Amino acid sequence: MRTLLVLGGGYGGLALISQLLNNHLPPDVEIVLVDRMPYQGIKTEYYALAAGTVTDYHLRIQFPVHPRLTVRYGQVGSIDLESRVVLLDSGEPIAYDILAIALGCTDNYHNIPGAEEHACSIQSFAGTRETYRRLNDVKPYGTVNIVGGGLSGVEIASELRESRPDLNISLMDRGERILSSFPVKLSRYVEEWFSEHQVETIGRVSVSHVEKDAIFNGTQAIPADVTVWTAGIQPVKAVQQLELPKDRGGRLIVGKYYNLADYPEVYVIGDCASLPFAPSAQAAGAQGEQVGQIIQALWLGETPKLHKIKLKGTLGSLGKNAGFGLMGRRSVMGRVPRLLKSGVLWMSKRHFG
Predict the structure, then answer these.
(1) How many angstroms from the chain centroid is the CA of residue 192?
(2) Nearest to 228 by CA among 104, 324, 320, 136
(3) Which listed residue, of 7, 89, 125, 131, carries a Cα 20 to 30 Å from 307's Cα?
(4) What is the pTM of this model?
């Protein structure tokens, strides 16, 4: 039997597995999935878990059950490309013939002293549960600072405002405005929503270090009961340790079939791969499906034929009743994008669950 080893049961990994299981898997191939948890966590909704507006049970999607799929639980410690072996943190080795790296991302603290030690995270299920505990243990009229004014920062700030109207919440970014990668019109709409809901947005904050009860903008201390970090991502440690060509974000350089030049049996999916679009669940899922099509074509001795991945847009929430987003080049704001985001979540559960 040949082993296809899939590291990570997120959007990319599950899209790959679904593509293969649903399209005549060769009889001499087994799929092994490695993940830390016994289910997929819906990462796009971790902000709501952190804010306390949903339970973690509602953010779980069970892994598929299939006689040709084996699920192994554990943390990936290292990847030995020469020997074609993955080592778990427990020391257990798992050999492979084909490898798909779909491990996702972790926070990028930009070497800022104290950030990793003292700030909360929403990059993992376990980390988000701890963030939920810390945020909801803050006493009334306490202060929460959220560092990073991108999509994740905006969503957790707005959701926390609806969950805890008693808190003093600030959203900080090093740029002049939040959502700097979005059109100015959309950014202004979100800032107006925050102003109406008493969430302070602060620009031009360059965090020099973080302490337990404050972040520092240079020498200026900005007190906080809790600091939440949403100021950048990077591939997970096992990928960081690979001495291979990477882009400026630390993502692995891949070829046209999303595999490594020196190790063509190794495919890289999602946040770990250097791709011509920003990391997202949507992109990882689309790419995972294409990797499945590539592998199937090669098994048949055919040349893979790929279409260009076309992303459908970006949607963000402002609590439960408002939202924003980009559909192509069009900015959308108000209740409609929030309803669309809820629909996407429902479809994701239905597709994988």
Answers:
(1) 27
(2) 136
(3) 7
(4) 0.93
3-state helix, strand, coil in the chain (%, to 5): 30, 30, 40
284 contact partners, CB below 8 Å, separation of at least 6: 10, 11, 12, 15, 102, 104, 269, 270, 271
Eight-class DSSP state of 150: S
> How far apart are alpha carbons 102 and 34 in whole angstroms?
10
Residue listed under structure tokens 């990994």: 13
Whether residue 144 contacts residue 160, with contact meaning beta carbons closer than 8 Å, is answered with yes
Q: What is the pLDDT of residues 33-51, one digit of tens each?
A: 999 999 999 999 999 999 9
Condensed to tens digits (0 to 9), the pLDDT of residues 150-162 reads 999 999 999 999 9
Helix (H) or strand (E) holding 324: strand 322-327
Three-state secondary-structure class, residue 121? coil
Q: Are 149 and 175 in contact (CB under 8 A)?
A: yes
Helix (H) or strand (E) holding 56: none
Give the CA angle between residues 133, 156, 201 to the nearest 5°. 120
At residue 341, the pLDDT reads 86
**CA end-to-end span of the chain, whole Å?**
28
Question: Using CA atoms, how far apart are residues 10 and 61, in angstroms rounded to an integer?
Answer: 10
Q: In what order do the strands lie in the sheet with 314-318?
A: 314-318, 322-327, 330-334
